[in-house]
Amino acid sequence: MNVLIIDGQGGKIGKLLIEGIKVAGIAAEITAVGTNSIATSTMLKAGADNAATGENAVAVNCRRADVIIGPVGIVIADSLYGEVSPAMAIAVGQSSAQKMLLPVNQCSSYVAGVPDLTFGSLVSDIIAQLKKWIETQ
Known about the structure:
Blueprint: E1 2-7, H1 12-24, E2 29-34, H2 37-45, E3 50-53, H3 55-64, E4 67-71, H4 79-82, H5 86-94, E5 98-102, H6 119-135
């Protein structure tokens, strides 16, 4: 099972996701792709099996992922303060992988009907959904 985690800024969400997957004992190869080198470094330190940075890394790894996890901004061009390029958003959106997006109401995006939850709550929910999805495969 190839899990691709995409994050930007400082990589905090990606770090929490990787740590949560590891703690939950989910058998997956985790590839972390940061929109910048700081995010990538943070996720690599959290225990990602593979890591890369930038637009091409997003495009390449979206093609081989079974599951893509990240903040909702990874499918919105120019989000994360401009770190998500249109090509990145297209690569995620067109991937055949299962997408699990955290509804983060930041960076000029608001997801209606979603309360402001802590990153910890969002990560716990994603980990539970990942387990369920893997069990059905």
